[in-house]
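Researcher: Quick test of sequence recovery. Tokens follow.
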């Protein structure tokens, strides 16, 4: 069973979602200013909200270190250094493959879900850090060019992650797992088992 989420986790998750959506959206039509020109409004918004995103994602990582033991911890989000966590992740992957092969509904996949969330947080962290470093420190330098290249590539990774993550959330909701109510608390819970 997926651990219950606190209000702090829900607020941080929603804030991060809104910031990522904004950043990906503005990246579609903003333009970097030419040397000596002032940035236009979309670029300024992208920089300032991206900096706020760095603060939110860092707060999210800090929260994973101190939040209640019933919530997903840091070691579940980043399982790559624990043989026990890697074994649980491999077990979840095998369960998905077996369920798909038999055209049946997969079981709850806590290790896989946590690792996927961890990858999303790592991607958001790298995106926000590279953007902030470029915009506030290294703009116009060789290091800035490398950071901007990495930032653009990570933006494509985040698009893929966002589409896949949202798609899986819709699938889980459709499978009657009451995911949206548990994560965002804006929909009524369907059963007592979903209550926190």
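Model:
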């Amino acid at each position: 069973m997926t651990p219950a989420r606190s209000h702090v986790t829900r607020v941080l998750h929603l804030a991060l979602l809104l910031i990522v959506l904004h950043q990906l959206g503005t990246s579609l039509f903003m333009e970097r200013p030419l040397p000596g020109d002032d940035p236009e409004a979309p670029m300024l918004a992208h920089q300032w909200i991206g900096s706020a995103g760095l603060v939110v994602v860092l707060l999210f990582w800090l929260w994973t270190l101190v939040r209640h033991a019933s919530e997903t911890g840091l070691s579940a989000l980043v399982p790559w250094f624990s043989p026990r966590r890697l074994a649980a992740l491999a077990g979840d992957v095998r369960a998905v493959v077996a369920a798909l092969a038999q055209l049946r509904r997969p079981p709850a996949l806590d290790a896989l879900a946590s690792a996927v969330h961890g990858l999303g947080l790592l991607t958001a962290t790298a995106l926000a850090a590279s953007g902030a470093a470029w915009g506030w420190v290294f703009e116009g330098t060789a290091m800035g060019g490398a950071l901007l290249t990495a930032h653009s590539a990570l933006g494509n990774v985040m698009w893929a992650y966002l589409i896949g993550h949202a798609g899986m959330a819709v699938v889980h909701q459709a499978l009657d797992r009451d995911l949206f109510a548990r994560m965002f608390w804006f929909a009524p819970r369907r059963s007592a088992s979903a209550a926190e």
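The radius of gyration is 19 Å.
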